[in-house]
Amino acid sequence: MAKDLEKRASLLRRDSVHGPFDGTIMVDAEARTLTVNGNVIQVIYADSPSEIDYTQYAIDNAVIVDNTGIWRDEEGLGQHLQCKGAAKALLTAPGKGDIKNIVYGINHESIGDSDLIVSAASCTTNAIVPVLKVLNDEYGVVNGHVETVHAYTNDQNLIDNYHKGDRRGRSAALNMVLTETGAAKAVSKALPELEGKLTGNAIRVPIPNVSMAILNLTLDKTTDSVALNDYLRRMSIESAYQKQIDFVDSAEVVSSDFVGNRHAGIVDAKATIANGHHAVIYVWYDNEFGYSCQVVRILQQMSNVRFLKLPR
């Protein structure tokens, strides 16, 4: 256990994508804790949720964040709620069945006290829904296609090997891998008005982080690139979606420039194409950190945490 904790501390200290952690990290092997910047993190080892009693660690009324991807329905995630000390569960993947799929900033207010299991949707859904929301409000989205150019993930193989998923068995470091994405269909769970209007695909590419969604849309109202960009820029600054939508207008930016960006998505103004009813919008997103920030915002909503922020 001691070596495991030391390894986890080392992985936090040095991150290949996000760089070194500029803070204090202490390991207590006997207590099985990491203390990071003075915050105690209890490490619990278990093969299934049924083995855990959180109250043994002085943890009660906890929100369990499940990022394993093993369970995505109420039955599977409900196992967490059977544990002593657990109150709610938050899934970091699209939920199945009647589980609410939440994109913070869009439909987080719909989370009620009776919602014990909630989904934070996917990183791609979080990136595109705020942009689609403001576009639909102003121009009306008739239909469209979402193409995701996504960094490879831990689910893929580094070298060719068996994989149950189509194409994902091929080396992630050497190939662009065409795969499916549920992001387009998942949009309607946060924006019901776009039900059935979007299709989607994804291409996994050989970079470790930062992805892009390309929104190819038919709009109800006509526009051009200048007007569309001006509107999206104002939405990123003046609207209620300031934390979700960022905006960049530079011909020099590339994917690595957005590592560590806290927004759900970043509109690339220089790539925008708009002519009449047709528009193509390019949205960058840090599929690790930006999405994690959205998850934390939902976690605070579920926990009724309200930090004082000035100016109000």
Question: Describe it for me?
Answer:
- The protein starts with a helix and ends in a 10-residue tail after the last helix.
- Helices cover 23% and strands 29% of the residues.
- It has two domains: 131 residues, Rossmann fold (3-Layer(aba) Sandwich); 167 residues, Dihydrodipicolinate Reductase, domain 2, CATH 3.30.360.
- The chain has 312 residues and is an alpha/beta fold.
- Helix 3 packs across helix 4 and helix 3 crosses helix 6.
- The protein has a seven-stranded mixed sheet. It has a four-stranded parallel sheet with strand order 6-7-9-8, with helices on both faces.
- The longest helix has 16 residues.
- Strand 6, helix 2 and strand 7 form a beta-alpha-beta unit.
Q: Any descriptors?
A:
oxidoreductase, seven-stranded mixed sheet, GlycerAld_3-P_DH_cat, four-stranded parallel sheet, 312 residues, Glyceraldehyde 3-phosphate dehydrogenase NAD(P) binding domain-containing protein, 2 domains, 6 helices, Rossmann fold, Dihydrodipicolinate Reductase, domain 2, NAD(P)-bd_dom_sf
